[in-house]
TrEMBL record, chain A:
Gene name per UniProt: leuC
Annotated protein name in UniProt: 3-isopropylmalate dehydratase large subunit
Organism: Loigolactobacillus bifermentans DSM 20003
GO MF annotation terms: 3-isopropylmalate dehydratase activity; 4 iron, 4 sulfur cluster binding; aconitate hydratase activity; metal ion binding
Function: Catalyzes the isomerization between 2-isopropylmalate and 3-isopropylmalate, via the formation of 2-isopropylmaleate.
Top EC group: lyase
Quaternary structure and partners: Heterodimer of LeuC and LeuD.
Protein family: Belongs to the aconitase/IPM isomerase family. LeuC type 1 subfamily.
Pathway: Amino-acid biosynthesis; L-leucine biosynthesis; L-leucine from 3-methyl-2-oxobutanoate: step 2/4
Lyase among keywords: yes
Domain Aconitase/3-isopropylmalate dehydratase large subunit alpha/beta/alpha: 7-448
Hydrolase listed as a keyword: no
Cofactor(s) demanded: [4Fe-4S] cluster
UniProt cross-references to Pfam families, sorted A to Z: Aconitase
Taxonomic superkingdom: Bacteria
Automatic annotation (TrEMBL), chain B:
Organism per entry: Loigolactobacillus bifermentans DSM 20003
Family: Belongs to the LeuD family. LeuD type 1 subfamily.
Oligomeric form and interacting partners: Heterodimer of LeuC and LeuD.
The reaction(s) this protein catalyses: (2R,3S)-3-isopropylmalate = (2S)-2-isopropylmalate
NCBIfam families: leuD (TIGR00171), PRK01641.1 (NF002458)
EC class name: lyase
Domain Aconitase A/isopropylmalate dehydratase small subunit swivel: 3-123
Pathway involvement of the protein, from the record: Amino-acid biosynthesis; L-leucine biosynthesis; L-leucine from 3-methyl-2-oxobutanoate: step 2/4
Keywords, alphabetical: Amino-acid biosynthesis, Branched-chain amino acid biosynthesis, Leucine biosynthesis, Lyase
GO molecular function annotation: 3-isopropylmalate dehydratase activity
Domain of life: Bacteria
A family per Pfam: Aconitase_C
Official protein name in the record: 3-isopropylmalate dehydratase small subunit
Length: 458, 191
């Protein structure tokens, strides 16, 4: 019997351990950021351990950084965390995309952008959205701080091999429906834990037709469906994306020849297959307090049916069963994050906002995912389009995706957001988040509520 | 890491599904930069305290009868969301030794193991009995035997042997992996 893509990737990295038991897996690249790493370095120092492969490690600053003036960190504790990472990288010889440098940005944006993320790799980061990197035909997964320390010390990690799930996405996306809607629609239908214990591979003609940035948006949110790993087989789109990037392999032809062997064999079986007909999808909006509480823009919010979790979600979000997304009073809009803070996302938003002004009731924040995204957007004049429309154009970072820096949505306000999590308090204490695609968020910013964009986009 | 062998304690139930790590610890807890922080007071900060800062009398952890509980009983997909290990640190610092959930997020599961906190699941009927227990009933979790005992009833639970051994001995994962140095070197030589 053949092997799945994930099994091929896994088998290449087993250092020790038997099938069916936890195995020691080799890590090709560890990405690091300031929030989940300080205790790991502290642990190394306390135990007089070193970093086994600093050259396989790359750090960036993203979660805490201010986006107004990136060098003016008002919050002393955030500043200390940033300085701690700077010092740790210096002490242990780790490359750092420091504040204000061309390489700095959100960890899952810069890895691919710099060509660090490559097919065939095992990539870890102390961050749950590391599944993003699976879009390149690699194993990417989020780990805790103890595991960060373990990888720093040993370049390996203990993992139990997950089961295989195939998500077959086929058909042409309708107008106004984007990659984000594929993943939001999947989680809205299957729930926030359907992938627990599985590695998810997305495949099918819809996936084949997507750009790398779109594929990343899908793999990124795999964790919101409970799966640690999401992957897509590498193809010409993947190779074209990587070639010429700073850390792309020097012998590219040789690397590509190897990458071309990374696909699920026709004789391989997934443990579970889920079918998604992309042609039937609508633009999605989340109405509740986890990404599973999501539905098509034109569908009424569900009944409570005695479910205490749903009741609590409605209490928090301030909406009622039976209402629709056009009745959500949007007063904030956020463009950014590792899900939708890339150049193609900003292009989509700018195209919609060009020559228009946002609804006066709506405060709009545009935060590019990285400095390279910011510079590329500025070279295209997108910053001016956003500013002319009444949006705030900021420095790169995680920003209001998780509200660890000054960018927060006030309590009780509804925010249309291109991010990945609508948990209670995610964008600020009491903030009410509604997840959607960049195009949906752009129209929400213009109207002060969501609209069914299938009627307006071409 | 503290070893964990047998825990006999009352339970406390927080019966909500999808408790994400952001509900377990506040943003301020994430800004720590060293290993010596005690996160006990931050655990469940949002639900545990009122806006005034006073304890919320309706929250199970604030029920005086449940103060001694070392076993937390909770719902589906516990520890979902961000990978923040601070959530596991807060549970550990508060004094929990065991979390019995309907299901766990896989990143949280590993974080729990790495901090001497035993995550386990049971079939629904058994879970429901535990979820409804009054505070004066003791439950025994025996990691070596892989059983949960309630009165005369004894139920098995599953855990990978490797994780079980590490928890029983309280060895941290790096020390454990140092035993595999030769395998790592062999792998690197063939790369
Ligand atoms: S953008 Fe949001 S989801 Fe992505 S790494 Fe930053 S905080 Fe996490």
């Amino acid at each position: 019997m053949g092997k799945t893509l994930f099994d091929k990737l896994w088998d290449r990295h087993v250092v020790a351990g038997k099938d069916g038991e936890p195995q020691l897996i080799y890590v090709d690249l560890q990405l690091i950021h300031e929030v989940t790493s300080p205790q790991a370095f502290d642990g190394l120092r306390q135990n007089k351990r070193s970093v086994r492969h600093p050259e396989l490690t790359f750090a960036t600053l993203d979660h805490n950084v201010p986006t107004e003036d990136i060098f003016n960190i008002q919050d002393a504790i955030s500043r200390k965390q940033i300085e701690t990472l700077e010092a740790n990288c210096k002490d242990f010889g780790i490359r750092l995309a420091d504040l204000g440098t061309k390489e700095q940005g959100i960890v899952h944006v810069i890895g691919p952008e710099l060509g660090l993320t490559q097919p065939g790799m095992v990539i870890v980061c102390g961050d749950s959205h590391t599944a993003t990197h699976g879009a390149f035909g690699s194993i990417g997964f989020g780990i805790g701080t103890s595991e960060v320390e373990h990888v720093l010390a040993t370049q390996t990690i203990w993992q139990t091999k997950p089961k295989n799930m195939g998500v077959h996405v086929h058909g042409k996306l309708p107008n106004g429906v984007y990659a984000k809607d594929i993943i939001l629609g999947l989680i809205g239908r299957e729930g926030v834990a359907f992938g627990t214990g599985y590695a998810v591979e997305y495949y099918g003609d819809t996936i084949d037709s997507l750009s790398m940035e779109e594929r990343m948006s899908i793999c990124n949110m795999t964790i919101e469906g409970g799966a640690k790993y999401g992957c897509i087989k590498p193809d010409q789109t993947t190779f074209d994306y990587i070639q010429g990037r700073k850390y792309a392999p020097a012998d590219f032809a040789n690397a590509q020849a190897d990458w071309e062997t990374l696909y699920t064999d026709s004789t391989a079986d997934y443990d579970v297959i889920i079918d998604v007909d992309a042609s039937q999808l609508a633009p999605m909006v989340s109405w509740g307090t986890n990404p599973g509480m999501t539905g098509p823009v034109d569908e009424p919010f569900p009944e409570i049916d005695g479910d205490a979790n749903v009741q609590q979600a409605y209490n928090y979000i301030g909406l009622q069963p039976g209402q629709t997304a056009d009745q959500i009073p949007i007063t904030y809009a956020f463009f950014g994050s590792c899900t939708n803070g890339r150049l193609s996302d900003l292009k989509i938003a700018a195209k919609i906002l060009k020559g228009k002004t946002v609804d006066p009731r709506v405060t709009v924040l545009v935060v590019p995912g990285s400095r390279q995204v910011k510079q590329a957007a500025e070279a295209l004049g997108l910053d001016q389009i956003f500013k002319d429309a009444g949006c705030d154009w900021r420095e790169p970072g995680c920003s209001a995706c998780l509200a660890m820096n000054p960018d927060k949505i006030p309590a009780g306000e509804h925010c249309a957001s291109t991010t990945n999590r609508n948990f209670e308090g995610r964008q600020g204490a009491g903030a009410r988040t509604h997840l959607a695609s960049p195009a949906m968020v752009a129209y929400a910013a213009l109207n002060g509520h969501f609209i069914d964009i299938r009627k307006v986009v071409d | 890491m503290q070893a964990i062998k047998k825990v006999t304690s009352p339970t406390v139930a927080i019966l909500k599904d999808n408790i994400d790590t952001g509900q377990l610890v506040p943003r301020t807890a994430l800004k720590a930069t060293d290993d010596n922080v005690n996160y006990a007071d931050r655990l469940f900060y949002g639900a545990r305290y009122l806006a005034s800062g006073a304890p919320n009398p309706d929250f199970p952890l604030n029920d005086p009868a449940h103060q001694a509980a070392q076993i937390l009983v909770t719902g589906e997909n516990f520890g979902c969301g961000s990978s923040w290990e601070h959530a596991a640190w807060a549970l550990r610092d508060y004094g929990f030794k065991v979390v019995i959930a309907k299901s766990f997020n896989s990143i949280f599961y590993m974080n729990a193991l790495n901090n001497g906190l035993l995550p386990l699941t049971l079939p629904v009927a058994q879970w429901e009995q535990l979820a409804a227990l009054p505070a004066d009933v003791q439950v025994t979790v025996d990691l070596a035997a892989k059983t949960v005992q309630l009165g005369q009833q004894q139920w098995p639970f599953e855990i990978e042997t490797l994780w079980q051994e590490r928890l029983l001995k309280g060895i941290d994962d790096i020390t454990f992996t140092e035993g595999y140095q030769a395998d790592i070197e062999r792998f690197e030589a063939q790369k």
